[in-house]
Amino acid sequence: MDAQGRGRAGGIDPADQWVFDPKTGSYELRLDHADGAEPAPGPGSTPSAITDPGSSASSFVPSSKASPRPAPRPKPGGRDVPGPRATGRRGAPGAKPGAAAGTKPGAGPGTKAGTKAGSRAAAAKAAATGRRKPKPKKSTKKKVLLWTGGTLAFVLVGGSLGAYLLYEHFNNNLNKVDVGINNGAVTKGPVNILVIGTDKRDGEGNKGYGDEGSVGHADTTLLFHVSEDRSNATALSIPRDMITDIPECTTKKDGTTKSIPGSKGVRFNESLGQEDRDPGCTWRTVEQLTGLKVTHFMMADFNAVKKMSSAVGGVEVCLGKDIDDPKSHLKLSKGRHKIEGEDALAFVRTRHSVGFESDLDRIKLQQQFLSSMIREMKSDDTFTNPKKLYNLGDAATKSLTVDSGIGSVSDLTRLAKDLSRVNLKNITFATVPVLDNPAEGKNHKTVVLDKAKAEPLFAMVRQDVSLTEVKEKEKKQQEQADAKQAALLQGPRSAPAAVRVKVLNGSGRMGAAQEAVSWMQNSKGMVRSSNGGNAAGGKKVDKTVLEFAPAQADQARRLADVMGLEADALKQRDGSAPAPAEMTLTLGSDFKAAGTPIHVQAPAKAPEDIQRVEADDKNICAK
After folding, report:
1. pTM for the model
2. Which of 77, 151, 360, 541 could form a disulfide with 588 if both were Cys (CB 3.0 to 4.6 A apart)?
3. How many CB atoms lie within 10 A of CB 324?
4. Four-CA torsion 40, 41, 47, 48, nearest 10 degrees
5. Hey, is 609 helix, strand or coil?
6. Are strands 529-534 and 501-505 parallel, antiparallel or unpaired?
7. Would you give the DSSP letter of residue 622?
8. Over the stretch 128-170, which tens digit does the pLDDT of each residue have?
């Protein structure tokens, strides 16, 4: 395709038309290639911004005072894209030759009027030539995260990929599935992205791997959790052979809605493909398993790893021994290698030559591969190379199937920008703790959830506790915030009968508010509690929150004791506002039943013997 997306012209690769300018930290789109040669900007050339719809990312088209280039032709149905034009008054109709428009008669040099006129003329000239005060240099470190699936492929793509001239090309690559939940691309709270790698064998590039007639399963699954303050992220790998329950789910296809009954005691990977289940069924299975609310999903097949690893020029991995696996076709010697394409896919699929030849050992390889790929994506070698960026964006979007909430490149870009604050050092991969299935005797083929270790881990993720050590400054700030919040629970408690509270239902479970009110009144003596109906807008919320005025702090402490609320559930209003007649308790999805403590305090550190990999660790070698 050419820069307008209508096909390659003159043999020019579209990626080669994007040139990185180290002075501005941005990419320039060169439209006047001649036989692949790159033009040099003429004297006085200035950038004209072209911005992607729905995105703040922009690229730049050079213009020249001596030989102005025509503006890019707008696409049918798209937004008009302005080309370079003079915005000053010089050369305006009626202006006298040799005179700056707007100059008053008699305003000669040396006069006050002349000085003002000269300033205006200079300003007009600057505007006409496009000259203006240069903007602060943009840092190439300000990156956009675009998380994608595959057999576990994450991609980090530079903001220039959302440029107008490439927008429709990438947008048309995406596939969407309506899972019956349409969350906005960006949310204020924590984000949980379900990443699914399917083993479906159909389609170009996917044949030749095992059973070509397979409907596809949730072969590799991660839940990528990003904390509310975007300071840390945890990717939970869910073993495909874990025995679990799959809840009832609804699918939508070709305008037809179908209800699929749940299954008990089956492999987790059957949550996709089997019984016509779609990613929405895996979505609901993960929510039931972890207690975390999924925000979006991304899914891709075998092709994703092959194409994206090649797009970045290879991903470095390390082996602690020689590997020759005839089943995955991986043949590598001990040591470090940079792999791509078929070798990369073989690496993330192999398991019979490492560890105990189990799926859990394969997960370790995948976590090593992903950590290395993220480091490669964050490197300047990728973000200053427009050809890599184009190939990477093309491969990523062609590999993706997403939910309707992020079903366009602009939506993905907005989500990516929201997540871009996460530091590489604070990203951790962990495997959901499991045990050999005791029902299978000595011949273990499946595993079951290790609840003793899994529940503390899930609690940490739900409460945004990082699995890595954050920077000392960040840690101190967090400790101060925690101490301030904890102080809300310190102090006197009012009598139960003095507690005035309105209970709203945001749990998503019918009758929860009335259940809580009846229990408060009849079992706890809080006779002034009332049912306020559904939460604002009828929306479901994740966490239970108690809002109160400073004058109601003693009532809030009493209610927190009764309901089992931790300090982070308390939200004190501005003290200058008049106190409302009653507090507001909004029940979230963490409310299970009246009398059951809502919040279980997460441990400060994860269990030491869980399988985990830190994304910035370059010294991991598979054995």
Report:
1. 0.59
2. 541
3. 10
4. -90
5. coil
6. parallel
7. B
8. 454 555 544 444 333 333 333 322 233 322 333 334 446 677 7
